[in-house]
């Protein structure tokens, strides 16, 4: 058609901290189709994991994504532990839950902030990111680093959390909860925010299932699927129920993540209350042999690692399937029919993590 | 220092491009903008348009596809301009230096003025790097 224009959205775009390109075909102001182009952050981690020793790979997979680095390491370590037939000590399992949930909490804060920024609510962005700094201070205190904390090891955790720090975490979470009570209602109830999110980027439950959506995008369509239901680490002992919403639009996705923030706070509190004493590391014996699939829940959805090892100190194959990759087809289904001005909001509503997607 | 140089030094505008990082450095750059670190007190503003920017912050190892975009962004920035490479990957490739799709650092693609090491560097280090880059820019 002659009166259609193609607008490249990205790779360098103010609302995207990461490079992905969407070629948007427009009829006037309405998006007709969107074609994603990826490959700007592909590094080749899966191949590098075959070259490095399986113990070194823990540090490599942490750098698949800097936002949920602990959860990547957890998924890898659980896979290797299954191959070596060892089990992490109970205290390590609870510590893993604490760090995982803190990562989810900081990732959701980050997302809520960026989402607010996408529809131009900059002061709300600043509020969420100020709250997030309290969580970054916890990582700094307990692990010595703000972003890549490197506390997960094969057979347990590399570091313990002292009682004084546990108390500090609880105090910080009280403050985080108080701040969430102030900021979340703005995202959920504010008139202009609702105007930008309710009914925007809507997909049906059937579409979400058919296109293989994962995580909050799927749960916003009323499907109670969350890998934490598998009960890995100590989740089985903490009484976990997934959060679901039914509308399948940007507002529902924001609401799922907002409610998951409170849920993470509760899970960390519960884990600290039940934290057993004892060892934090089981010494691994022998080398991994066999094939295994390891699944955990990332802030963005299901993370899947396939590991194949033949008894040497290197892996035969490491396959990483990340949730954003699964959420790109639903994104392409959400975009047609929307206004150009809504594109940033819709793109951010799947919480894109491009460095995960491309590895 | 003439008035143009002075105003530029008091309010440098920043362009950020992720050339293939793990996100860690990118969120630390965003953290610099937020209330706890608040780089706006130095007059720094994050902009999306390369034609408005004075400082280019690059994170991550470069690959062939992003190198083209990075070069394009650098060429569009008006002179004088400075480039700050943030994080171990942008310096040398870091943990990914042996990966097949990695160009081992961004200095093969654009001339780098200041290198900020760390995985990921702390926001204080990134701010220090930008301040050092501004000193270099003022001498040009």
Textual characterization of the structure:
The complex is a heterodimer of chains A (359) and B (140). Chain A is an alpha+beta fold and 359 residues long. Chain A has a single domain (4-358), classed as Cytochrome-c3 Hydrogenase, chain B. Chain A is built from 13 helices and 8 strands. Chain A has helices spanning 45-51, 57-62, 69-84, 90-118, 122-143, 163-189, 191-197, 205-210, 216-219, 250-274, 323-334, 343-349, 354-358; strands at residues 4-9, 21-27, 30-37, 152-153, 156-157, 289-298, 301-310, 315-321. Chain A has a 3-stranded antiparallel beta sheet with strand order 1-2-3, with no helix packed on it. A 3-stranded antiparallel beta sheet of chain A has the order 6-7-8. In chain A, a hairpin with a 2-residue loop joins strand 6 (289-298) and strand 7 (301-310). Chain B has 5 helices and 5 strands, in the order H-E-H-E-E-H-E-H-E-H. Chain B is globular. Chain B starts with a helix and ends with a helix. The longest helix of chain B is centred in the last third of the chain and has 16 residues, at 123-138. Chain B is α/β, with parallel strands linked by helices and 140 residues long. A 5-stranded parallel beta sheet of chain B has the order 2-1-3-4-5, sandwiched between helices.
């Amino acid at each position: 058609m002659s009166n259609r224009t193609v607008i490249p959205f990205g790779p360098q775009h103010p609302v995207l901290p990461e490079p992905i390109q969407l070629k948007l075909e427009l009829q006037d102001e309405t998006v007709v189709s969107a074609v994603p182009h990826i490959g700007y952050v592909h590094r080749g981690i899966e191949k590098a994991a075959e070259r490095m020793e399986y113990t070194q790979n823990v540090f490599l997979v942490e750098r698949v994504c800097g936002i949920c680095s602990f959860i990547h390491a957890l998924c890898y370590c659980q896979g290797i532990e299954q191959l070596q037939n060892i089990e992490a000590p109970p205290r390590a399992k609870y510590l893993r839950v604490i760090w995982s949930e803190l990562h989810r909490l900081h990732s959701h804060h980050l997302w809520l902030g960026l989402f607010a920024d996408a529809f131009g609510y900059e002061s709300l962005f600043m509020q969420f990111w100020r709250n997030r700094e309290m969580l970054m201070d916890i990582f700094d205190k307990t692990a010595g680093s703000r972003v890549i904390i490197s506390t997960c090891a094969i057979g347990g955790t590399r570091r313990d959390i002292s009682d004084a720090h546990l108390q500090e975490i609880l105090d910080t979470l009280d403050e985080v909860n108080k701040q969430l009570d102030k900021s979340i209602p703005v995202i959920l109830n504010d008139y202009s925010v609702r105007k930008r999110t309710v009914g925007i980027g809507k997909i049906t439950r059937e579409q979400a299932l058919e296109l293989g959506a994962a995580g909050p995008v799927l749960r916003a369509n009323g499907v109670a699927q969350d890998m934490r239901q598998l009960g890995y680490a100590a989740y089985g002992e903490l009484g976990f129920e997934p959060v679901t919403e039914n509308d399948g639009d940007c507002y529902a996705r924001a609401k799922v993540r907002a409610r998951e923030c409170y849920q993470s706070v509760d899970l960390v509190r519960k884990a600290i209350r039940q934290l057993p004493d004892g060892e934090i590391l089981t010494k691994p014996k022998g080398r991994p042999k066999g094939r295994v699939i390891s699944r955990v829940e990332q802030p963005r959805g299901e993370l899947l690692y396939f590991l194949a090892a033949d008894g040497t100190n290197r892996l035969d194959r490491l396959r990483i399937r990340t949730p954003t990759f699964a959420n790109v087809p639903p994104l392409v289904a959400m975009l047609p029919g929307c206004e150009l001005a809504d594109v940033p909001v819709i793109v951010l509503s799947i919480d894109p993590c491009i460095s995960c997607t491309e590895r | 220092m003439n008035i143009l140089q002075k105003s530029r030094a008091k309010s440098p505008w920043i362009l950020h491009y992720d050339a293939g990082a793990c996100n860690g450095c990118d969120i630390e750059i965003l953290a610099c903008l937020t209330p706890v670190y608040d780089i706006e007190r130095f007059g720094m503003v994050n902009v999306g348009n390369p034609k408005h920017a004075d400082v280019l912050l690059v994170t991550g190892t470069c690959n062939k596809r992003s190198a083209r975009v990075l070069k394009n962004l650098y060429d569009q920035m008006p002179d004088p301009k400075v480039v700050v490479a943030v994080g171990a990957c942008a310096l040398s490739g870091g943990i990914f230096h042996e990966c097949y799709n990695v160009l081992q650092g961004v200095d093969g693609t654009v001339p780098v003025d200041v290198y900020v090491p760390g995985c990921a560097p702390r926001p204080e280090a990134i701010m220090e790097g930008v301040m050092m880059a501004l000193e270099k820019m003022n001498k040009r």
